[in-house]
């Protein structure tokens, strides 16, 4: 084989959820928000001038970072923003996970973590969730080069109490502990309240879910000024202008609208609980998801066959071809009307099979 072929960095890429585009579809497969972003975002977009596009954006993303800092009660030097939390997490892996000891994360979790480890050649060791799909903090008391987990976890939706996160932090004073809070706004207390106590904590959040801005690509990390400075140093060594002008303006507007966030997430939580109860009545087993999705299985149904049947009628959910969770479907919470269509389909599907 030619040398240049041998030298290709071979990776098994992360597979993002499908992005189908049918006018009649019910899209419950990538945990997007069924409601629009804050009206303040539309206002900000109206004010953006195309003439400004010839100019580079502010590499410090000051307007956005300052707005995030104000909204979360921290200093601007504690905020790092990126092109979605995927970008932020990738920078975190690159910046902080440089040990010979393995980085620890759960066996069932966000499937991007092992992909970044392989891409950046970071050793890692997965820690199996217990039989109830919960993270056991004791599994994170072994020597490691860093720790990362979502809270609530994905795709289970199960949240870990802050006391368990503190247990992990106190047992690992020498390790960076990254809490990926992509779904925190749907009813989980944030680890941000622990920041002043633990210098080894970094919290990551996104505008993609609760703020309905997946298409704008905004994510952020909050941590100590020293850690955030290290992240900025790596970012400027890679691509200085990650946040474009529109994202900076729209993101800054969105994060100031706390009332809208509360209203939207409140609606989604109500729909989630109603859907969960209806599914349980039909015999589905659901984890106690604190996210904007449900993770469900049915003892008498083949999950993959159901996934395909739903797809055939343009109801898109997510099925993972992965150990331990092949019998499960992850269903994003849509509007009440969308969930009613789903529930009615499932009702018929069960009836046709005499279940
Ligand atoms: N973390 C978790 C746990 C996720 O499920 C996702 C969404 N795929 C992300 C991070 C990344 O989201 P985004 O890049 O849209 O902020």
The biggest beta sheet reads: 5 strands, mixed
Bound molecules: 4'-deoxy-4'-aminopyridoxal-5'-phosphate
What Rg, in angstroms, do the CA atoms define?
A: 21 Å
Identify the strand order in the major beta sheet: 2-8-7-6-5
Please give the oligomerization state of what you see.
single chain
Give the number of helices.
11
Average pLDDT score: 97
Name the helicity range: 25-40%
Task: Describe the protein.
With 355 residues, the chain is of the alpha/beta class. Helices cover 37% and strands 13% of the residues. It has helices spanning 3-6, 39-47, 62-72, 84-96, 112-120, 162-171, 225-236, 245-255, 258-281, 303-312, 336-352, and strands at 26-27, 79-82, 103-106, 124-127, 147-150, 177-180, 201-206, 219-222, 285-286, 293-297, 315-316, 329-332. The protein has a five-stranded mixed sheet with strand order 2-8-7-6-5, with helices on both faces. Strands 9-10-12 form a three-stranded antiparallel sheet. Strands 1-11 form a two-stranded parallel sheet. Helix 5 links the parallel strand 3 (103-106) and strand 4. Helix 2 (39-47) packs antiparallel against helix 8 (245-255), helix 4 (84-96) crosses helix 5 (112-120) and helix 4 crosses helix 7. The chain is globular and about 60 Å long. The chain binds 4'-deoxy-4'-aminopyridoxal-5'-phosphate. 4'-deoxy-4'-aminopyridoxal-5'-phosphate binds at residues 84-86, 110, 150, 154, 180, 182, 206, 208, 214, 219.
